[in-house]
Design a protein that fits this description.
The chain has 128 residues and is mainly β. The chain is 0% helix and 48% strand.
């Protein structure tokens, strides 16, 4: 059974940092890509970042580019999202997701419809 478990969310002041983790199980971790998404109350889900565990290729949304870094530790079946210089508008539930597609194209990397499995999410709240 495929499982994705997020952790690392919390309450942080504006300008602070958080590192989110996504641990996967039930699949061959280094064959696929993991994406991070977020959804704030009353807003649509937004793709934040994606990494291919196969070759390390990474993609970022413009909203977080330069402030965030996605990385992986295939030995631990874990993907990380380091977020710095956090802003109140980063407040959302953050989800990680797995795509079983063998190739991740730039046009699909941050498209939630491209992903097959989702975690339960972790809350990130940034106070001003």
């Amino acid at each position: 059974e495929v499982q994705l478990v997020e952790s690392g969310g919390g309450l942080v002041q504006a300008g602070g940092s958080l590192r989110l983790s996504c641990e996967g199980s039930g699949f061959t971790f280094d064959n696929y890509a993991i994406g991070w998404f977020r959804q704030a109350p009353g807003k649509e889900r937004e793709g934040v970042a994606c990494i291919s565990n196969r070759d390390g290729s990474a993609y970022y949304a413009d909203s977080v580019k330069g402030r965030s870094s996605i990385s992986n530790d295939n030995a631990k079946n874990t993907v990380f999202l380091q977020m710095n210089s956090l802003k109140p508008e980063d407040t959302a539930i953050y989800y990680c997701a797995l795509t079983l597609a063998p190739v991740v194209r730039f046009t699909k990397a941050l498209d939630g419809g491209f992903y097959d499995y989702w975690g339960q999410g972790t809350q990130v709240t940034v106070s001003s």
